[in-house]
Design a protein that fits this description.
CATH topology of the largest domain: Serine Threonine Protein Phosphatase 5, Tetratricopeptide repeat
Structural class: alpha/beta
Helix content: 55-70%
Distance between the termini: 92 Å
Shape: elongated
Number of strands: 10
Length: about 625
């Protein structure tokens, strides 16, 4: 074919395109697509449609371009409507030129979209991306010389022939957790977090991953009228390696609470040499066996949480006090049960709440070291303004600590003194069995009926996370972001909890979902690319480096960021001195986030630092303001 013929054919093709108004249509299509995409970028976020929806619209408009050109070639818009354009074929090359141009346009558009999706879809396949960054966890090896940093006690099995010792096994389980929590340098997973594994068939490495625990304690109780056997196994969960089997046999156990304390102390000795044996005083040794049995039965009924079980619990506690009027644990249980019964009622009796408050005060007067008494008293006092209006407040006894002195910090040169009422106890979750049940019910009772359920769920998630109840907190947060995807604080906290508990993949995917939501403050695509690069080099530490950069940017933008957030980021990065420095500042400022120190896995690497251990010893007192918050605080 000669050049003249080729030029003539191409010229005819261009002329035919002008006659069919294809160029005008292409320009109009591009202009309309641009306007639509600009509007979508503004409108989509208002309806909760994130970047995924915008990308679909881009793909649709792009892929619709080539077939639209075909239709523009075949049809024209006239004053009489859409008419098929008359064909005028001057050269036999013209149909092939038109087909070739259409093919080139299709390939060009498809290739451009493919490149766009490849660049824009970096986090569309987050799991695939992270496979190269975070390879699947392999079965760990057990090194006996490595200190235990975290421990979880699974619910104990009742192997008694009659199957009627659930109350005893429940009490034993709670005692183990309570005593292990006194050990400095070891994080103990909360009782509510391990409750889901009762009778589980999940493997130990999987439980370890879900709870972020080094050691798992599991066991059973076999009890009859004249003999009690408790068997416990300590397992290095990441490697599924058996560490030790402990067994106790006792004929005619009378002093049940002391027996349980002895068992707990033996477990503590296996776990760590750093414990204060005076903290394990056998406070129940002078309490008659019948009173102890009634008490642990009452505590078990209290845990069930129904109106009927609460009344049964109150009866058991009353039986225990009839036998021993100075039995402080039963007194705290009585106060908690009577208060809970009122929380379940539609009309709260002021007299009953005040009476429960007096009983809690008396329990604390008898045993000023009782965490349960302190917790019940604190929760009742928090409820009084909302439940009983202007009822008179009874002053707490002098034994209730009103200040916390943190000493021997930084080689003994610094002493920190602060008032516990500066802590916002509204953000604090309870720790004991009695307190957890009361606090959960108080949240439902004191929240206005017309309150936003999403805000309430987020509020509960904050409290649960503060108490180390991470599975429950994650459940609440996933509910929140599903219903209100534009709620950025929920996304941020969800990702933060995932990473804190070792679920890096889930954490990054939560961040990506946050980005997809289009919510204000969400990380950009380039920021997430930076995160993956950092995690490729330093895994979890890379995340905390990235998180710290975002915190500093928020401060630079004029936003207030809690000091405890910085402390936690530095702890995750392994910068111990900066972490502790910010932690001390957070304490002096009275930040409630400090209360998560004992349960947050991020601090596991620092728990054996003497400075952190001192703070850990004192942190439990921060939870009890000791008196009603001063006006205006």
């Amino acid at each position: 074919m000669s050049n003249a013929e080729h030029t003539s054919g191409f010229g005819q093709f261009l002329a035919e395109m002008r006659r069919r108004h294809v160029g005008r249509f292409a320009f109009g299509y591009a202009a309309a697509a641009f306007v639509i995409l600009q509007l979508a970028e503004i409108v989509f976020p208002a309806f909760g449609i994130g970047e995924g929806g915008l990308r679909l619209l881009v793909v649709g408009t792009g892929l619709g371009f080539p077939p639209s050109l075909v239709l523009a070639w075949m049809y024209d818009l006239t004053s009489d409507g859409i008419q098929r354009t008359d064909g005028v074929v001057v050269s036999p090359l013209l149909p092939r030129l038109a087909l070739g141009a259409l093919l080139v346009a299709t390939i060009g558009v498809t290739g451009a979209l493919g490149l766009y999706l490849e660049r824009q879809g970096v986090f569309e396949s987050t799991s695939a991306q992270l496979d190269s960054v975070l390879p699947e966890v392999q079965l760990a090896s057990y090194d006996p010389s490595e200190p235990i940093r975290s421990i979880a006690v699974l619910p104990l099995d009742d192997y008694s022939e009659a199957g009627d010792q659930a109350y005893f096994t429940s009490s034993m389980h709670e005692e183990l957790i309570a005593k292990l929590s006194m050990v400095q340098g070891v994080r103990v997973v909360s009782r509510t977090s391990v409750a889901q594994f009762a009778g589980t068939t999940i493997t130990m490495p999987e439980i370890s991953r879900m709870l972020d625990a080094d050691v798992i304690v599991e066991g059973s109780v076999t009890r009859s009228a004249d003999r009690t056997r408790v068997t416990l196994q300590l397992i290095h969960a990441p490697s599924d390696t058996h560490i030790e089997t402990l067994q106790w046999d006792r004929d005619d156990v009378g002093d049940v609470l002391t027996f349980q304390t002895e068992i707990a102390l033996d477990v503590v000795k296996e776990v760590s040499e750093q414990y204060d044996e005076s903290a394990f005083a056998q406070v129940a040794s002078n309490v008659q066996p019948e009173a102890q049995d009634a008490y642990i039965r009452g505590r078990y009924e209290f845990e069930q949480g129904t109106q009927e079980s609460l009344r049964t619990a109150a009866e058991y506690f009353e039986d225990a006090l009839d036998i021993d009027p100075d039995f402080a644990p039963a007194m705290a249980g009585m106060a908690g049960a009577r208060f809970m019964i009122q929380l379940e009622e539609d009309d709260v009796s002021t007299d009953e709440v005040v009476s429960a408050h007096e009983v809690a005060l008396e329990a604390l007067r008898i045993d000023s070291a009782s965490t349960e008494a302190r917790e019940v008293l604190s929760l009742i006092e928090q409820s009084m303004p909302g439940l009983i209006g202007d009822a008179p407040m009874i002053s707490a006894p002098a034994s209730v600590e009103r200040k916390v002195h943190v000493v021997s910090m930084n080689a003994g040169q610094d002493t920190i003194v602060f008032e516990t009422p500066t802590f916002d106890s509204a953000w604090v979750s309870a720790q004991t069995g009695l307190g957890v049940r009361i606090a959960d019910r108080m949240r439902l009772r004191t929240t206005p009926r017309d309150a936003n359920p999403t805000d309430r769920a987020y509020f509960e998630a904050r409290q649960l996370a503060s108490a180390g109840r991470y599975p429950e907190a994650i459940g609440r947060l996933e509910q929140v972001v599903s219903e209100v995807p534009e709620m950025s604080p929920a996304w941020e906290l969800l990702a933060r909890i995932y990473v804190s508990t070792g679920e890096l993949r889930d954490g990054v995917e939560a961040l990506d979902a946050w980005r997809e939501s289009g919510a204000q403050g969400a990380p950009s695509r380039s920021e997430l690319e930076d995160l993956v690069d950092l995690m490729r080099e330093d895994a979890e530490e890379g995340y905390w480096t990235w998180h710290l950069d975002r915190l500093e940017q928020r401060v630079a933008d004029g936003e207030h960021v809690a000091l405890m957030e910085f402390a936690t980021a530095y702890a995750g990065m392994g910068d111990d001195d900066e972490a502790i420095e910010h932690l001390i500042e957070a304490i002096t400022e009275g930040e409630p986030g400090v209360l998560a120190l004992r349960s947050d896995p991020v601090w596991d690497g620092l728990r054996r630092d003497p400075r952190v251990q001192e703070l850990g010893r004192q942190s439990r007192f921060m939870r009890f303001p000791g008196s009603r918050r001063a006006p205006g605080r």
